[in-house]
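Consider the following assembly input.
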Amino acid sequence: EPEVTQTPSHQVTQMGQEVILRCVPISNHLYFYWYRQILGQKVEFLVSFYNNEISEKSEIFDDQFSVERPDGSNFTLKIRSTKLEDSAMYFCASSADGAVNQPQHFGDGTRLSIL
Amino acid sequence: GDSVTQMEGPVTLSEEAFLTINCTYTATGYPSLFWYVQYPGEGLQLLLKATKADDKGSNKGFEATYRKETTSFHLEKGSVQVSDSAVYFCALKGGNQAGTALIFGKGTTLSVSS
């Protein structure tokens, strides 16, 4: 069964540094997402991406965050200047389309630790 | 705004016991409802879904019925196994905002012992 893959599985970064998290969505999917889960808290939506542009974003997704689809397969999340509070598990997801009834398929996540 | 409320965990059961994990939601419109499961060290996996009132989603012995009158989507399984130990998340999409985001509950940890 096709799956979403994320790399790296664990990223440790100094505060203030830039970090890029990478994802390969399911190949025929058109919508891509990033979510995060701070330890012990809810899974929170960050951003959705369709047709090479952001289609929706949450309040969390401020100017420090950006997303990109640099080629036909990768989807990346960049945090420009990391803060301690960015430490979380980051999940990438994809769906075949944006319909309400369409499930999103998740990767295994990248654990980001900011020191 | 839209929200999902799940019962607090952890839920601790013996093998073959009956499982219920309560989930209620707040949303207007016609959201779709989902249950995801997260096994230790893994990502979120879709367990089941229901897209309209009175629909029943089912998978791997788990069931949940979309109840619009009680705004609920409780997860049930008749006989749990040790391998069902995981964190279970209830989620909705397409309520008030009719957007693309999944709105998750806090998750309920299930621990099954033999």
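The radius of gyration of chain B is 14 Å. Ask yourself how this observation constrains the way the partners meet.
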